[in-house]
Write a structure and sequence with these properties.
- The protein has 368 residues and is an alpha/beta fold.
- The chain is built from 16 helices and 8 strands.
- The structure holds iron/sulfur cluster (SF4).
- Iron/sulfur cluster binds next to helix 3 and helix 13.
């Protein structure tokens, strides 16, 4: 075991590491201010694993319908050795007729064993190197590539849906397959942003690989591909070469935030403590927000903690912003009722007046 792995093992308190994957790493950017989530992910755990193995509860399960739909759509698209995905690219003119080389890395080493994982990573690297050398044998579609991404000195493996490049293009873009229904301008924007950020995790991994090979990172570009499905059918809809500049920037910012290395995580914990203890998880600083429910299995715990602290965020983002001057719900109630100590500053005086005006209005509406 390397010294770094030994430290991670100690921080996990003996819990087995899980591959957090592109989705887990992407979730860091959704709440860049949450130290708790960063510490969990960096040490090789997930919020679901913490819920199950540390807090002894059942994590939220993804709806079986959604899982089946996602798997069926992906299977359909990657069936015939990736032929269906290739057809979509050709129909849209993003691959030429001669761009017909497809390699599925997962076929080479399909098991979840360490040996197969290493073989998938090596094969992905070999195929990418072919492209960098301009070798005509370089695939146009690499399905299920496995790449390494180093965050704050810890290497995480990520498996992507695919990489794509025509023979004319110098390098690959990352592609993601999502079973979200494509409703044009009405498609859920949060879903699209998530898909873009997930693909951008792959772009960051490509950038790191390029750097390690002495190649310019610019080759990885800032564009990604997304395949959605048409509403009510499995017909794929391709959005190729979408600009993901802001998603890449938000990810990079989130990954650069503290704790930025294992030293900082260790310093945050009491001596010898590990994330396998519920009290240690509870003591890690968090930053609950209304969007936590969308991506983090710990949301109920963090919301309960926010409620116990009288944090106005439990009433939603807008309420939290409006009550910011009070600092807590208890203080806001004091300002409304004129109880407790008098207003500390002008911001509290204004807030007290606004709360009383709103209360009087509500009273008039309710009682006529
Ligand atoms: S639910 Fe908790 S741990 Fe997860 S991101 Fe939100 S505040 Fe952080």
């Amino acid at each position: 075991m390397t010294p770094e792995n030994a430290r991670l093992h100690r921080l996990r308190g003996g819990l087995t590491a899980v591959e957090v994957g592109a989705r887990g790493i992407e979730s860091l950017a959704r709440n860049a201010n949450c130290t708790r989530l960063r510490a969990i992910v960096i040490t090789g755990l997930t919020p679901s694993k913490v819920i199950e193995h540390v807090l002894g509860e059942l994590p939220d399960a993804m709806s079986p319908f959604a899982i089946t739909l996602t798997q069926a759509f992906e299977k359909r698209l990657l069936s015939n050795a990736g032929g269906s995905l290739l057809t979509v690219y050709r129909e849209k003119g993003h691959l030429d007729p001669q761009d017909a080389k497809i390699t599925n890395v997962a076929d080479l080493a399909p098991r979840d064993t360490q040996v197969d994982c290493i073989r998938r990573e090596r094969e992905t690297r070999r195929l990418i190197e072919l492209k960098l050398r301009g070798d005509p044998a370089a695939p146009n579609l690499i399905l299920k590539p496995r790449l390494a991404l180093t965050i704050v000195g810890v290497t995480h493996a990520i498996e992507l849906d695919y990489l794509v490049a025509s023979d004319r293009e110098p390098f690959y873009r990352v592609g993601v397959i999502k079973s979200y229904a494509d409703r044009g301008g009405k498609t859920n924007k949060a879903h699209i942003r998530t898909a873009c950020r997930e693909a951008s995790v792959g772009t960051l991994a490509l950038q790191q690989l390029l750097t390690s090979l002495g190649q310019p990172v610019e080759l990885a570009g800032d564009r990604i591909d997304i395949v959605l499905k048409a509403p009510g059918s499995f017909t794929p809809r391709l959005y190729a070469a979408q600009r993901a500049e802001s998603e890449l920037a938000s990810l990079t910012r989130a990954l650069a935030a503290a704790p930025s290395d294992l030293d900082q995580i260790e310093q945050m914990l009491p001596a010898g403590a590990s994330l396998a203890k519920p009290e240690v998880i509870e003591a890690l600083p968090n930053h609950y927000c209304s969007s936590c429910k969308e991506h983090c299995a710990l949301w109920q715990h963090c919301r309960a903690q926010a409620q116990a602290q009288g944090n106005a965020i439990i009433l939603g983002d807008q309420a939290a912003e409006q009550l910011a001057a009070a600092g807590s719900l208890n203080r806001a109630m004091d300002l409304l009722n004129g109880s407790g100590r008098p207003p500390d500053n002008r911001a509290e005086v204004v807030l007290a007046a606004e709360l009383r005006a709103a209360s009087a209005l509500l009273d008039r509406i309710a009682n006529g």
